[in-house]
Write a structure and sequence with these properties.
Largest sheet: 6 strands, antiparallel, barrel
Order of helices and strands: HHEEEHEEEEEEEEEHEEHEEHEEEEHEEE
Strand content: 35-45%
Strand order of the largest sheet: 1-2-3-6-5-4
Shape: elongated
Helix content: 10-25%
Radius of gyration: 29 Å
Number of strands: 23
Structural class: alpha+beta
């Protein structure tokens, strides 16, 4: 009994000598900074226009020969107009047999392919049906007046984490990426806004919330964001997408010549001349009317004809580079081509024609 009494007394004394624990008070946040409010508003205004794209691919079982539909990948896209056209990257839907579109409000649609331009890594899908109501769209900006250092914002679905916002700056302009078997993808916007797999096809916005590009690629040894991302500029999008919607394909301007990157590399090494070797002149084309001559195959090898070294004064050294520079112009425009023939330089003015 004495032991119990002593314990009770000790507990009472300890309790009286120890201050009661107090809950910490919450400090009021106060007003958000002006730039924070602007970013929040930008995201709220643009979010409804961004879509989540999941694709599937048909495969054939080797043993049973049965055909199955299996998941292929996912990406992002943007509602383009009231007709239900969805803009995304070509590589998001390349090789897919089905595409499913999920809007920010939870609605899901099966999409059909309208047109694609692998050379620009752009594709247009379409969703909709009876009673389809398109969400609000992002206002269109321009990319010709962008400056390095401007704030930019990317919205997409990286790694399937839907409707993610990242912020960065324009790190560089007029970047080019080689495109295997085709023209370089030119005039790209470089940004340090975090862009990861799944962001492809999503919008790149300026601080006014205007669409200035479509996120397309990252440069990363690990496959994750390393602070170097690229976007197709909106000026290119505005030139290509209307053709994709109208015709299902993009018709490139051409000089009326044939060339080949692999053959061109061999001829450059053999001759020591940097440029694009004309391998064939299309009969009746602008190049034919301007008197361009093609390389000739003889018993002693290939004898070069005209070598294109510049377009409108800008140097060209590769086939992909020439094709990409031509894409800066429209069919019917005239361009000045600088040529080397037999070691002598000359110029010719050609009117661009529709390519094949």
């Amino acid at each position: 009994m004495n032991a119990l009494l002593l314990t009770a007394v000790a507990t009472l004394l300890f309790t009286q000598s120890t201050p009661a624990a107090q809950m910490p008070t919450v400090t009021p946040r106060g007003e958000l900074a002006a730039d924070e409010r602007a970013t929040i508003e930008l995201f709220r205004n643009a979010r409804e226009s961004v879509v989540f794209i999941s694709t599937r691919q048909r495969v054939t079982d080797f043993w049973s020969r049965n055909i199955y539909s299996v998941p292929r990948g996912s990406g992002s896209g943007l509602v383009w107009d009231d007709a239900g056209h969805i803009l995304t990257n070509y590589h998001v839907i390349e090789g897919a047999s089905e595409a499913q579109i999920q809007l920010a409000d939870g609605r899901e649609f099966s999409a059909s392919l309208v047109g694609a331009s692998p050379e620009h890594d752009l594709a247009v899908l379409r969703i909709g049906g009876a009673g389809f109501r398109a969400p609000g769209r992002v206002p269109i900006g321009t990319s010709e007046d962008l400056l390095v250092g401007q704030n930019v914002f990317a919205i997409g679905n990286p790694f399937g984490l839907d409707w993610t916002l990242t912020k960065g700056i324009v790190s560089a302009l007029d970047r080019s990426l080689p495109n295997e078997g085709g023209p370089d993808i030119r005039n790209l916007i470089q940004t340090d806004a975090a862009i990861n797999p799944g962001n492809s096809g999503g919008p790149l916005l300026d601080s006014a919330g205007r669409l200035i590009g479509i996120n397309t690629a990252i440069y990363s040894p690990s496959g994750a964001s390393a602070g170097i991302g690229f976007a197709v500029p909106i000026d290119t999008v505005m030139r290509v997408v209307p053709q994709l919607i109208a015709d299902g394909r993009y018709t490139r301007p051409t000089l009326g010549i044939d060339s080949d990157e692999n053959v061109n590399d061999r001829l450059k090494r053999a001759s020591g001349v940097e440029g694009v070797f004309v391998l064939r002149v299309e009969p009746g084309s602008a190049a034919d009317r301007a008197g361009l001559t093609a390389a000739q195959r003889t018993r002693r090898g290939v004898v070069p004809g005209d070598i294109i070294t510049a377009l409108n004064g800008e140097r060209v050294t590769r086939v992909g580079e020439l094709l990409a520079r031509l894409d800066d112009f429209r069919i019917g425009q005239s361009v000045e081509v600088t040529l080397l023939r037999g070691g002598e330089e000359r110029t010719a003015r050609l009117e661009l024609e529709p390519g094949g």
